[in-house]
Amino acid sequence: MTTKVQPINEVKDPIPKDNTGLNKSQTPLIIGGLVVAALLLIYLLATQQVAQPLLLVIGLLLGYTLFHARFGFTSAFRRFMSVGNGQALRSHMLMLAVAVTLFAPILAFGYSFFGGEVAGYVSPVGVSLLVGAFMFGIGMQLGGGCASGTLYAVGGGRSVMFVTLLFFIVGSTIGAKHLTFWTEDLPSFEPISLATSTGLGYGGAWIVSIALFGLIAWITLVVERKRKAPKMAPVPSTKGWKRIFRGSWPLFAAAIVLAVLNALTLMTRGAPWGITSAFALWGSKVAQFFGVDVTSWGYWQGANAQVLESSIFADSTTVLNLGVILGAFLASAAGGLFKFTKLNLKNIAASIIGGLLMGYGARLAFGCNIGAYFGGIASFSLHGYVWGILALAGTFIALYLRPLFGLSVPKSKDSFC
Questions:
Q1: Would 278 disulfide with which of 6, 40, 95, 318, CB 3.0-4.6 Å?
Q2: What is the pLDDT of residues 375-416, one digit of tens each?
């Protein structure tokens, strides 16, 4: 296996630095990004319900946070499975701890900004979930990023991730077509909530969840000591209030911000943050344009039928996704890091395969690292934990596949970003 891991934002060509050693902000790009965001906000205010503009703002903050902290799910899983470094996984546990603390009263009492129903992501555990999460774990390691990672890498100008996103959409659309077979013809258990299916209530489920997060964090520390795992290399940053806009954020700070933003998303649209359902919508609309009868698919029956018939801007997940891309673009430009990167046949092939696996797997698994893992666990759903275990298993297999495409894998002697 190869040696050094490049940070997602690394560029080889020199970019002017300021006196802190950081890249200079790309002011024209920042202005352009703000103009696009403002125009989209105005359009949503004029054409959609009030929740949509608010979700765009939340999406912008999500993308800004993800990029500024380099907050990853793909890299976190890969570091732990390859060399035993659990720093990023512990930030996941902090994020989940804050999330369940916020989600518990929201779900228990139905708190909502606009008076609608509030429900978490609680999905069945069955063959569909097991296969889908495992596929997603492999796919995100080949595609170069998970669902959120793909969006924020696109916003940062990483060219190969545009390929990943395209085939993520294709895979998700194919998964939507096949979903009925996986969910209705193959075995599965009913959805299990630690809060409502066990008699624990939200208070008891919160205690169990916090204990599980603490246990997982402790396990990562034990593994680190046993394997003498290398530490994550520091990323250049500045100090004081300027750090909000320049340089890297600490992982723990981003973990808290992401949890709070997910809770705000839950209260705004009545469901947690999700990403990949929009990919199935986009792909299905394109297929429908070319004459494919997507309305006959089981996925687009019932409540989903109205989603398919409406504008994509009426879809809250679409609006969040656009916000994430724009927020990451603004963050990368503020850090002077936006730059299209070079493509080669090997990374294109990896992105095609990875995107297809992630898209298809996300549909089978009732979501991705955000909808199933983050949103599922925050909603006290058992399927979120199962998703994480199977995605880790897929990551382990992908460690042996990545070098075939010229992709690096951390080694015990390396420090990495």
A1: 318
A2: 999 999 999 999 999 999 999 999 999 999 999 887 654 433
